[in-house]
Amino acid sequence: MSGDLIQRRGLMLVLSSPSGAGKTSISKKLLALEDNLTLSISATTRKRRPGEVDGSDYHFTDQTSFEIQINQGAFLEYAKVFDHYYGTPRAFVEDKLSNGQDVLFDIDWQGTQQLNELMPEDLVKVFILPPSVSELEKRLLNRAQDSADVVAGRMAKAADEMSHYPEYDYIIVNRDLEESVAAVQKILHSERLKRTRQIGLSDFVKQLRNSD
After folding, report:
1. Sign of the four-CA dihedral 65, 119, 128, 186
2. What is the pLDDT of residues 110-169, one digit of tens each?
3. How far is Cα 53 from Cα 45, in angstroms, rounded to an integer?
């Protein structure tokens, strides 16, 4: 008799936050630490930033192609953020989950709501908050990826984004990056042990009970 009878369905781990609060930095460190975790690479219509690689950071596409894929049902979720589309390819995620692999999502509250409507039992939702508004603005300015106008727009949107925190299972205030990564790891490890994710558990327990 062996616990090998028990397999696990993968889970979808969502990290959301206002822009600049640290979800992308946490995601990168988490992926380096967790072997059975893979990143869901979103498709987007926005332009590539310096250093970004197509197929690694995002699947970059044009608006017409994106809208065709919407009509084909190719996305688990999609949203228009700052005048650009972002979406999660369906086939990749469903394949990973069925093979017991966990998928990490770096998406906003709109995308999270859509995933929650489609696959709530597979979803683990974590919201990342900044320690303060001033720290959030500082992080956005230090990234030096966006113009002052874009930063101002992101700051204006942050209050609305943060108002959606009650829709999430877990909340982390990102005061220290390493501590935040460790907290997300604890969440992930606990969620992997949930009874409902363990396929074959019923048969395994029956064998335990019937063994001499």
Report:
1. negative
2. 889 999 999 999 999 999 998 888 788 777 767 666 667 777 777 878 888 999 999 999
3. 14
**Length of the chain counted residue by residue:** 212
Domains of the chain: 3-40+101-210 (3.40.50.300)
- The predicted pLDDT at position 21 comes to 86
From residue 202, how far is each of 48, 117, 122, 182, 195 by CA, in Å?
48, 27, 19, 32, 10
Query: Is 39 within 8 Å of 106 (Cβ atoms)?
Result: yes
pLDDT digits (tens, 9 = 90+) for 87-124: 999 999 999 999 999 999 988 898 899 999 999 999 99
Q: Distance between CA 21 and CA 15 in Å, rounded? A: 11
Q: How confident is the model at residue 1, as a pLDDT?
A: 46
d(CA 99, CA 7): 9
Crossing angle, helix 23-33 and helix 177-192, to 10 degrees?
Answer: 60
Q: Is it the case that residue 45 has pLDDT exceeding 90?
A: yes
Whether 3 contacts 183, CB under 8 Å: no
Task: Compute the CA torsion angle 36, 39, 28, 67 (nearest 10 deg).
Answer: -170
Q: How many CA atoms lie within 13 A of 184 on its CB side?
A: 33
